[in-house]
Amino acid sequence: MVGLPLEENRRWARKNSQSWRRPLVNTQRPRRPVLLVLVCIVCLVLWRHSHQPSQSPHRNVVDDGSSSPFSIQDRRSLRDSYDQFSQRSIRIGTAPGAQDDSDVRTETPAAKDIPDFDLKVQDSEPNQQHHAQGKPTTPRAGSDPELPSGPEIVVYAGVPVEDATSDGQKDDLIINPLPKGPVAVKANLDPSKEKEFLISSPDQPEREKVIEAEPLDHLSLEEKADSLPEIIHIPFEDVVAGSTLQGWEDRWISDASYDSKAWGKLEEPKIDFVYLWVNGSQDEFQKTKHPYELNSVLNDDEGKWLKSHGVNRYRDWDELRYSLRSLERHAAKFRNKIQIIVNSVEGTPEGKQVPTWLNDNPHTQETVEVLAQEEFFDAEKHACLPTFNSLTIENQLFNTPSDTDYLYALSDDMLLGKTHAASDIHSPLFGPVMGFKTNSYSATSPPTDVDAHRFGEKPFLIYTSWLLNRRFGIRKRKGQGHFGHALSRSIMREAISSFPGPELQSACKRFRGEPGFQLYSWYVTFHYLIERHREALIWSYIMLRSDVDGDGNLSWEERQTIMQDLETGMNNEGRTTYRKRHYYHVSQLLQKAGLEPPKVNTDVLWTSLDGPQAIQNADCIEFDVNECLAPGFSISSTDSHSKNPMFATSNIFDRLARQEPKCGDCLLKLVLNKTPKGLGPLLPHAGSQQDQRDLVIKAVMRYRYTIINPDALFVMVTDAEQVDSTLVSRYVRSKKELAGQLCLNDDVSTNDEQELADVKEAMTELYQGLFPDPSPFEK
């Protein structure tokens, strides 16, 4: 008999089970008679090992499968499985004493039939039954049409015995349970060192290399992701440690005022422009990608996925060349670096994809950086490279090296149509600019297999919405616009790091659509920023300003002050013009600080200086402190003899910030109604709480933002006639004014060479007509 190595077992199970992340105990069948038979077989095998001294230590014995009802994956003991998954019952980010209602309790269906112990798992994450290709694990290969036919392979662990002939080395042989395609070769854990071809003889054609199994460290990272908490809470003190204030920020946050005479003009920010780019038609790229395609869990026996997946994701219409031309025409004034994110490829002098038209003169080298994934991914995640999944790459953009914190992320099919000011993207007063679609998402239960198969970006929006709801409370959150994204590297790092398990799991998705959901970088970063600004203000008011004595509990006197603030705000609630709406005056406020006002994104919908975005349409007429803050909040006798834990500031903070978000929105809105402008009523008192006030100012400045209705045009390109009639005719021949931003998304579905050539010609006519002048970075 020959052995099937453990790594092959695991790879085979992942390849043939679309629910391979599901807790192993769920696949056990309650067949006690069969278990007895299995015990007998194991005893027999152990007896045979004890009488075969020539067998190699740790060698595995392969049975024909006729006597066991369990799959390879199920060889782990039930007790080990229980220990592994029970350790994941961790509560993260819950304030002391607060009730966390985000638990997902799962009782394993087969637990009652398992002997020896009662198995019940309480988990803070779903039972992993919602992967992109999720299907129940089927123990017997013959019962599932997707699994290969033939005898079931079952592995029994051998008993280590001394073997004088093997010198302690393993004698395992590799069996490929999926005998299809080219002949597999033993995998090199470093694909960059593998030979491109294997030639068996001069008379035979070249055979493609095959990466037979994922490297062990890649699989280990996936297992580590499962063991990490899904959600953590990062203290405000930690994120602002090391940051400094220039002096003008206090009056700006508290009173919406900037004194240019005292502080001078503010400096315009420098912004990096970061592109994701791939030339899918390059032979070296195809040779690099193809072995991983063959090894992907998405690869099917018929080869349908190989033929159909993502041709338009890798196709190149030469968009990047013209996008850089638009950038130099419309944003060169505040552009810092241009970073182009590419794949490493074999067989090129640079070892990575580089646009053939890109100049290599000193000016270009100073401004344009071509970064392979290995040059900015975290070192630990190098085991997951290369990746051909844009979502995976986007989740690591905060690691791109730069001397500025601000970046504007684009795909190569995005162009600037009008001249921009830096404030169209980011400003020192109002932070990054964000645009959203009209559709909202609010997942209150773990995503399902149905969600995984929804169109486009919806699976990732639903999954990330579910995480955000558990972290910040349930509310509808709009999807981000499909244009350039203004980001702070430090905020993006904090946002993604707040979801450790999903972040690491996302990093190991080599192709889009592989089992499991992915964290959606834009959506999580934008809404994390919005929610943290709101959370910082609740923290400031409840845990710092209102807790005057700093004992962590709101006394009757402290509660009375809160109720007085709320009463004053309630009296102004009906006065729609009492609070000045700063989002109407962004241009004037920027000019007063010596900054250029926006030229493109002038339709401003909200700024963080007006308060959290959630208060904009909050209905607070029926606000009740006893319902929203704590039972008995308005009654002095509830803590007349001793401290009442219901009035612990941590409990009330968690209640307002996460458990009852509408209550938190109304508290903020009513307290802000005390003053016509600024956020002063929510801040710690100047003087008596100065250190705490400075801490809050740093946090609120860190999480500032602006929401706009973008001046943008999005077109799904389908064919040459459409491009000519809707784009070339209008914007090139008729000289119509372009939108501020354009996104020409490749949705061409044909494989006809002539039709593709026609599209290429039409796109070139459009781009050349709009941006005929070469950039200084072209040869």
UniProtKB/TrEMBL annotation:
Coiled-coil region(s): none
Compositional bias ranges of the Basic and acidic residues kind: 73-82, 113-123
Stealth protein CR2 conserved region domain ranges (all copies): 313-426
Ranges where the Stealth protein CR1 conserved region domain occurs: 269-296
Pfam entry (one): Stealth_CR2
Keywords for the protein's UniProt record, in alphabetical order: Transferase
GO molecular function: UDP-N-acetylglucosamine-lysosomal-enzyme N-acetylglucosaminephosphotransferase activity
One Gene Ontology CC term in the entry: Golgi apparatus
Keyword Cell division: no
This protein's record includes keyword DNA damage: no
Domain Stealth protein CR4 conserved region: 742-779
UniProt record similarity statement: Belongs to the stealth family.
Protein name as it appears in the record: Uncharacterized protein
Organism: Exophiala mesophila (Black yeast-like fungus)
Phylogenetic lineage: Eukaryota, Fungi, Dikarya, Ascomycota, Pezizomycotina
